[in-house]
């Protein structure tokens, strides 16, 4: 299952002068968050383990990983079962991720690199949704 593809963003109504990588920033941030949770899928753990570890250590940007190892795409193959359970609901077709991202980082959408995003703020945004997902009765 394909959750997202950077080309869907930079191929559409995209700001002039923004590099194509900015169309994947919101995807890369999510991928980084998932990998930090330990949710890297078998595909990446077999084929891209060094890059996954470099991303986790902060030695490789998630945007570089997304375009170099994932061809700009975010699919269920990139995550393990636990990661896909959450992402299919949160990031999936009708999930609230895009609205959360726009509400938190809308002024940066498609015009700012990953490094200009506050990853702690991003993580707090996603963690809130993850906690609700894990404990639906408390949401």
Cα(first) to Cα(last) distance is 27 Å
What would the average pLDDT be, to the nearest integer?
Answer: 94
Helix and strand string, N-terminal first? Answer: EHHHHHEHHH
Structural class of the secondary elements?
mainly alpha
Share of helical residues: 40-55%
Strand content: 5-15%
Sheet with the most strands, sense and barrel status: 2 strands, antiparallel
What low-confidence regions span 5 or more consecutive residues with pLDDT below 50?
A: none
Shape: globular
- Tell me the strand order in the biggest sheet: 1-2
Q: Any overview of this molecule?
A:
The protein has 139 residues and is mostly helical. It is built from 8 helices and 2 strands. The chain has a two-stranded antiparallel ribbon with strand order 1-2. α2 packs across α5. The longest helix is centred in the last third of the chain and has 16 residues. The two termini are 27 Å apart. 30% of the residues are buried. The mean pLDDT is 94.
Helix and strand topology:
Layout: E1 2-5, H1 6-10, H2 25-36, H3 42-47, H4 49-57, H5 62-69, E2 73-75, H6 81-90, H7 97-105, H8 119-134
Antiparallel strand pairs: 1-2
Helix pairs in contact: 2-5, 7-8
What's the gist of this structure?
This protein is mostly helical.
